[in-house]
Structures are given as C-alpha cells and as structure tokens.
Specification:
Layout (H helix, E strand, L loop, with lengths): L14 H16 L6 H31 L12 H33 L2 E4 L7 H15 L6 E3 L13 E9 L6 E6 L7 E4 L6 E5 H7 L8 E13 L13 H12 L4 E7 L4 H11 L6 E4 L8 H5 L26 H7 L2 E5 L5 H12 L3 E8 L7 H11 L3 E6 L7 H13 L3 E3 L6 E2 L3 E8 L2 E9 L11 E8 L2 H15 L11 E3 L3 H17 L4 E7 L5 H13 L2 E6 L16 E6 L4 E2 L3 E6 L2 E7 L5 H5 L1 E8 L2 H15 L5 E4 L5 E3 L10 H21 L13
Parallel strand pairs: 1-6, 8-9, 11-12, 12-13, 14-25, 17-22, 19-20, 20-21
Antiparallel strand pairs: 2-4, 3-4, 3-7, 5-6, 7-8, 10-17, 11-15, 15-16, 16-17, 18-25, 19-23, 21-26, 23-24, 24-25, 26-27
Length: 708
C-alpha cells in the first residue's frame, strides 16, 4: 500500500469535473476547422448525448446523496453539494460553447455548402410554408395529443428526454391564461426535408412545424405564446437484489420507472415567456441553476440525423472498411488456425467477423460439445445471439451469462435472454451485487488427442455494430492454462465455486486490484534498485484512489509512467516529488478509444496485459472483470506498437497539463501523426500482403510492427 502522503485530497481531481473536461475535448473536435464539416456535426451531437447520460446518472446520483443527507467528501475533498455547485457552473459554460459552435460556425457553413436548417418557422417563404402546413395536416396532426391543464386535468407526466411544446392559451371570448403542452412525437422524423428545385437543400425541425400549427390544435383559443422545452429525469435506479424474487421482472419494473424519475434538468428556448417558464419551474420543482435557456434547437443529438442526409459525402471523412485478419483467411477452419498459435485481433482496423465466425463454426461443428459466453452489450440484430441459439438447437451445451444490469441496455438484454432460453440455452442473469463486465467465450471441443478448449478474450463487447466504431483488442487462444482458467471463471459465474489458484487470468472483484497494485509496486521496487522500470497503461478512465496513490509512489521512486486515458482522469501531473515522472494523454478521434492495454517493463523483460477493466473502483471492486496476459512474441510486439503509436500521436491527442487543463500539442515544425489513421493504413497494407501471399501459395504471415 502506498504511503499515506500520496492520498492527500489536493493530489486528486474530482471525477465529475474530469468527465466534463473529457466532454469538452469531444466538443473541441466539433470546433476543429481541420475536420470535415459533417464530422464536426457528429461530434457536437455526441457531446450532447454524453451530457444527457451524465445528467441522468452522475448528476442524479449526487442529488440522491444530498437528499439522503450524505455529505462525505470525495477523493478530491469535495462534498456532493460542492460538486453540484461547481458542476452547474461548468455545465452552463459547456452548453454556451456548444450552441455558440452550432450558431456561429456550423450552421452558417452548412448553408454555405448547400444545406439550410430552418429553425424558425417565421422564416419560411410562401411556397415552403404551404408545403409545411400540408405536411402537418397529413402526417403530424393525426399523431398529436394536445394536453390542457386546468382544475379537472392536472399537470401531465412529461417523459424523460422527450421534446415538448408548452403554450399559454386564452379563450377567444376572454378568461384566464391556461397552460397546455404537446409532445413532439418521437415516432416521426425530427428533420423534415422541404422540396425545392435549387441547389440548396432545406430541412425544418418537426417542433417548428408543430409550433407553427398550434392554433389548429386549440381551435377556440388564442395562442399567447408557444415554446419548446425538454426535461431530463433521474434514471439511475438501484435494485435490492437480495430482496428481488425475480431479477428479470424487477429490472423490467425499474426500467418503466426510469421515465418518471425526479426532474433534474429543464431545457427551454431562449426568450421563453416568463409566465410559461414559471409554471414549468413550479410543476417540475426545479431551481434556477437546473434550467438551461438554449439559443438554438433543443437536443442537439438531432445533428446525427442531419449527418445521415444524403448528398454530402464530400463533407464527411471517408468510411473505413475493417480489414480481414491475415491469420484467418476467408473460409478457413478457425479452430485449426488457433491451434497454430495465438491470434491477436485489433478492431475496428481488423474485422470483428472472426469473433462471429468463432461462434458460428462452433455452433455447427459436430465435435463441439459446449459453448459458454458472457454478454454485456450486444447489437440489435446480433449474429452472435443467433449462432448461440442455433448451437443449442443443434444439441450443444450452451451457457450464456446475460448481464441484465448493463445500464441503458437492460431492455435489449432482457429480450435476448428470453430468446436464448426459448432456444434451449442455459441463461444466467449475473451475480447478486456485481455486474459481469468481462468479455470471454469458451468453446469445448472433442479432438483426437482429447478435449481441447478454445477461448476468446476481449476488451470490448460482443457487439458487431460497435466493433466498427470502438477500438478494442481480442485474443483467440487454445493455451491449456488459459482454458483451465476460463472453465474456472464460468464455474464461478454459474455456481459458487472459487478456484484455489489462477494460472494466467486475473479476475475482479477478488484478485485483479491486488494484481495491478503488485505490478506497479514491483516496478517501484525496481526503480529504487536502479533497474529499468517503465509503465504504459491505456484505458478509458482512471479514478481508483489506491491505484493513483501507487502510481504516485512509483513516480516518486523514478518509474517513468505514460498513461493514455480517454475519459476521466483523477490523477494530477507535475506535482513536485509526487508525479513528475507521469505523463497523461487523451485521444479523441474518429473511433472511440476503448481498449485496455497495460505494459510493465520488468527489469530487462516486459509484460503485456489486456482486459475489460478500467482503473476505477466500480471495475476493480464491484464487477466481474478479466485481465489476460499476451505472451506470444509477435502479439506482444503488436501491442507495444499500438501503445507507441498512440504515444507519438500529435493530431488527436490532448496532453494533461500541470494546471489540470488539456491542450493539443504544438505541431509547428513537426510531421503530423494520427495514430488511428496509421492503424487503418497498416491494416489495409497487411491485408494486401496476406492476399498476395495467399495467391503465391505461402501461408506465412509476419505482422507489421512499424508504420512504413
């Protein structure tokens, strides 16, 4: 355990404020003039989507703490109340920059490039107005349900994240002002194209069409004002699993409650009528700091729909097609190839198809006896689910752990769990009190020399859709020691069996944190002895206090530490005598950095590990996670190459400064290097080399370890 001085609160950054810095880095991509215009739209949409989830989970959690009277300081010494106050200030700044970017940079450039977004129906010309009104009557009016509020009709329940239009009405024959609201239907497209003959494409947002036609919804009333609004609710439900008789039914019940949780944010149109705002504020029981007056369209996730409009490919980054894996030629026997040696996969640069084929071939292979797999998040039309179901129908023993508590994927996973059960699979719903976040598949096969176990281990989900967008690594192996460990993992998940020891794998929540602390401590000891000591760690988030303290102690001993942390980082750099040997960078690029890779220079040797866990308390202490070693010479060279490329990235990397801010590197006089683009190029070159080698009749493949 690190010395107590390394735990001082002033050496740590608040987790939530660090996350806001990450969303600011995403927003920075939307503001980068070197990025194609439509890609900038996409990043602005992602910023908004990120912020929504942050409110529903993190802000909601802080509010729950305050309501419960919990005021214990966090690792940075901030109480929940102090955090909320500071976060409110910073989020308002972030939202202001979001809309400044949209209004002053992106929207004018869209129009200059042939796409006009009409955000005020008053700007419509006569011809366009006629089309919009006809569209309303034919497509929108039949779907709407206007809701008035009076003594007999109380204020309606407004659904979480729904877009609505609030209005103040007065009867044409006189009377008091009355409140009414209309939900903008999510079943209709929010972006409506307006036909025209010119080169300029025009779209209008659905809420503008409804607002323009409000008088048709309230025929006997005069519309005093009408303004869009949107609320965010607490969606961070908790379940007492010990008391829940049926976990699946309890989660189904809790999902429904998510729509009606406590209101925690209200977004309204800038310039909203004060009386209307007062009603919303009172009915939703919100304070002024939780109200955001927006100068532009509410919910900028709509920009992802704008991104999908056809005809603007020249304003988008060229689409990359994941490349074949050279060691696994099309139509090969995947089990035969794995027997030749471990195979390292690097997604999305290499296709995810071998992972799908691994399950498909196992489902059809008469020699396969059993398939066991953990599923955390899968795609909407998952080929892996279909293959598992087929395997069960073919008489294989199929065991699937479906994690029902995967946040915001609960409904999807419940559907898959029921389908797999109907197909004859044995479905486990995770462990009480723990989320199973590990990514592991075990195939048990009968062969001439006995039973052999084939294993896939990964850093990312078994999701063929996100595998095209997230950077992850995976390992296909039939190493006996890992096979024994994989069997032990599934026995632990399906029953109460804890292995006496592990051969190669390290598993949370019981063993993994100590493994990391041991590895960091070992390098600390080596540095004190004057031996080589270097740590490189790549992950999504770093906020575990014990890990950070151990890194501080290692740095103080002289260990050189390079951290590639995409999101939250609660560690500070440049503290004299504490973190002078630590460097932190965050890469935000076209693909979402998601892999976890850990390098430890062990005196004259090095060790490389990959896993599903970030260095966060929830991953190390409250989840089932797996860390696996990568031991083959070529595979280790590939992993080290990935880390080295990311450490020299000077295009998409932001560097953590001593004052806690992040800055892009000054590239003046330097050659620009984008690691993600480099990996794309390398994958294409390797695929071409493998294809030409295949044609020449030779199957030997040597992976590239440097960019040429």
């Amino acid at each position: 355990m690190a010395e107590q001085k390394f735990y001082a609160p002033e050496y740590y950054v608040n987790r939530e404020l660090s996350w806001l810095l990450f969303d600011n880095r995403v927003l920075g991509e939307a503001r980068d003039k070197n990025i194609p215009l439509f890609e900038r739209l996409k990043f602005l949409s992602i910023t908004s989507s990120n912020l929504d989830e942050f409110f529903m989970v993190r802000i909601a959690s802080l509010k729950d703490m305050i309501n419960a009277g919990f005021e214990k300081p966090d690792i940075a010494g901030m109480t929940p109340s102090e955090q909320l106050e500071k976060l409110s200030e910073e989020i308002h700044k972030l939202v202001d920059v979001q809309y400044s970017t949209y209004n002053k940079a992106l929207r004018p450039q869209l129009e200059a490039n042939g796409l006009k977004i009409i955000t005020a129906h008053e700007d419509l010309n006569e011809q366009d107005a006629a089309y919009v009104d006809k569209y309303f009557e034919e497509n929108v009016y039949p779907v709407l349900t206007p809701m008035a509020v009076d003594s007999s009709r109380p204020f309606p329940l407004i659904r979480n994240k729904s877009l609505n239009i609030g209005a103040l009405l007065k009867k044409k024959d006189g009377g008091e002002l009355e409140f009414a609201t209309v939900q903008v239907p999510s079943v209709l497209a929010r972006t409506v194209p307006i036909p025209g003959d010119g080169s300029l494409k025009k779209i209008i947002l659905l809420e503008e069409i409804i607002e323009r036609n409000m008088p048709k919804l309230f025929l006997n009333y005069h519309i005093e004002c009408a303004h869009p609004y949107r609320i965010m609710r607490n969606a961070d439900f908790t379940i007492d699993e010990d008391e829940a008789e049926d976990l699946l039914k309890e989660i189904e019940h809790q999902i429904k409650k998510r729509q009606w949780g406590e209101a925690i944010r209200l977004e309204v149109e800038a310039g909203i009528n004060k009386k209307l705002l007062k009603i919303l504020k009172k009915e939703l029981q919100l304070d002024a700091e939780n109200i955001y007056e927006i100068d532009g369209p509410l919910d900028l996730t709509v920009l992802m729909k704008v991104y999908g409009i056809e005809g603007f490919d020249h304003l988008k980054a060229p689409k990359f097609t994941p490349q074949p894996v050279p060691e696994l030629p099309e139509g090969c026997d995947i089990f035969e190839e794995i027997r030749k040696g471990d195979i390292l996969l690097h997604h999305p640069y290499q296709t995810f198809l071998p992972v799908v084929d691994f399950i498909r071939q196992a489902a059809k292979d008469p020699e396969v006896l059993a398939i066991k797999q953990t599923l955390y998040r899968v795609s909407g039309n998952s080929p892996i689910i279909a293959a598992l179901a087929q395997a069960a129908e073919n008489g294989k023993q199929v065991t699937v752990l479906v994690e029902l508590k995967a946040r915001f994927d609960e409904e999807n996973n419940i559907v898959w769990a029921k389908m797999l059960e109907k197909a004859g699979c044995h479905v486990i719903y995770g462990l009480v009190g723990l989320k199973t976040h590990s990514k592991i598949t075990l195939v048990v096969r009968r062969e001439e020399d006995g039973i052999r176990r084939y294993i896939h281990l990964g850093t990312g989900n078994y999701n063929d859709a996100t595998a095209k967008l997230y950077t992850d690594v995976g390992l296909l192996t039939c190493t006996e020691s890992i096979g024994e460990d994989a069997t032990a993992v599934f026995n632990m998940l399906s029953g109460y069996s804890e292995p006496l020891f592990w051969n190669k794998l390290s598993v949370a929540p019981l063993w993994l944190k100590n493994k990391f602390l041991y590895l960091i401590g070992r390098e600390t000891k080596h540095a004190r002895q004057g031996k080589k000591a270097h740590i490189i760690a790549k992950m999504n988030s770093l906020c575990d206090k014990d890990i950070i303290a151990a890194l501080y102690e290692a740095s103080a001993a002289g260990v050189e530490i390079d951290l590639i942390v995409r999101g939250i980082c609660c560690l500070k750099v440049g503290i004299p005598g504490i973190s002078e040997h630590i460097r932190v960078r965050s890469i935000v690029g076209n693909f979402l950095e998601h892999s976890r890779i850990f390098y430890f220079e062990n005196d004259e040797h090095n060790e490389l590990y990959c896993g599903s866990a970030d260095w966060m308390p929830r991953n190390l202490e409250r989840r089932v996670e797996i860390l696996f070693p990568v031991e083959g010479k070529k595979q280790k060279e590939t992993l080290l190459h990935i880390l080295e490329c990311q450490l020299k990235d000077n295009v998409k990397a932001s560097i953590l400064c001593n004052d806690g801010s992040y800055e892009k590197q000054d590239r003046r006089g330097r050659v620009s290097y984008n690691s993600q683009e480099s990996f794309c190029q390398e994958a294409m070159e390797a695929a071409v080399d493998a294809a030409s080698t295949e044609e020449s009749g030779s199957r030997t493949f040597i992976p590239r370890t440097s960019h040429e």
